[in-house]
Amino acid sequence: MPSNRNAFSSWRRRLVQNAVHAGWAWVQRTASVTAEHPGRLRFGAIGTGTRLAFPLGTVFGEPWIHLGDHCIVGEQVTLTAGLMPDLDLGPDPILRLGDGVVLGRGSHVIADTTVTIGSDCYFGPYVYVTSTNHSYDDPHEPIGKQWPRMEPVEIGPGCWIGTGAVILPGARIGRNVVVAAGAVVRGTVPDHAVVAGAPARVVRRWDAAAGWQPPLRTPAPVPIPDGVTPEQLLALSGLDEAAVARLAELDLAAGEAAGDVRAES
User: What is the phi-psi region of residue 24: left when phi exceeds 0, alpha when psi lies from -120 to 50, beta otherwise?
Assistant: First the structure.
């Protein structure tokens, strides 16, 4: 029987693999950017608890970039202010992120003129936000050499921007708006709306009297009860389906027993 030449290489490979993974995790932790450890970056403002994951995307014009508290900027996210590095953009910030903003991996926020993202906005991966668009007025000049058009962009607080969405110059997105994955948004989007498509259009909207129109097709999720601790949630996550089903049966039996007691009284 031929000898297994990999008999001793497998454990070496595991050791090297574990060492590489541990080393990369250390690099990611150490090289991430925070207010306490900004590295080479000098943002106009970077709030408490905000972190830019490593590896970074393209970042320039940071004196005109203001980041709020407790923001999470994923890996390979591009944040730029101005058409190119080393420009004097004046006294006011160009790109503003509110508190609690999450920018998913590989997203781009290109602020050649003002871009404002409200607090508690969540972006999926690979979202593209830009305040600049190419112009093609002159049919004889290459489009890339023509001076671009710029319009401010504003995204209201509490929005959810789906994976691969594109927010174009001049967009004004209201409060608590859902932008579907792959949508291309231009113009004004009202508060409490869901938009989808390219170009994006309103497909659902909340009305104070009638609720969501058209009505939601699924019931609202049941929130975690008050008083549940993180340790209890971790314990529940380790249960198998049979145990979860048994807990549901016990809960149902307890409810029925309580109902019987109330009926007898």
Answer: alpha
What's the number of CA atoms in the CB half-sphere (13 Å) around residue 201?
3
Contact call for residues 125 and 163 (beta carbons, < 8 A): yes
Per DSSP, the residues of 14-65 read HHHHHHHHHHHHHHHHHH-EESS--TT---SEE-TT-EEPSSP--EE-GGGE
Q: Kindly give the confidence (pLDDT) of every residue in the chain, 265 residues in length, as a single tens digit, with 9 standing for 90 and above.
A: 555 555 556 878 888 888 998 888 888 888 899 999 998 899 999 999 999 999 999 999 999 999 999 999 999 999 999 988 887 888 899 999 999 999 999 999 999 999 999 999 999 999 999 999 999 999 999 998 999 999 999 999 999 999 999 999 999 999 999 999 999 999 999 999 999 999 999 999 999 999 999 998 888 888 888 888 877 777 777 666 666 566 666 666 666 665 555 555 5
The angle at the Cα of 153, spanning 157 to 159, to the nearest 5 degrees, equals 25
Distance (Å, whole) CA 38 – CA 33: 5
CA–CA dist 155, 98 (Å, integer):
10
pTM of the model: 0.79
Task: Report the C-alpha gap between 182 and 124 in whole angstroms.
Answer: 10
- Please say whether the dihedral angle defined by the alpha carbons of residues 156, 81, 52 and 167, taken in this order, is positive or negative: positive
CB 187 within 8 A of CB 177: no
Compute the 3-state secondary structure of the chain and give helix, strand, coil in percent, each to the nearest 5.
25, 25, 50
Closest CA to 142 of 134, 133, 150: 134
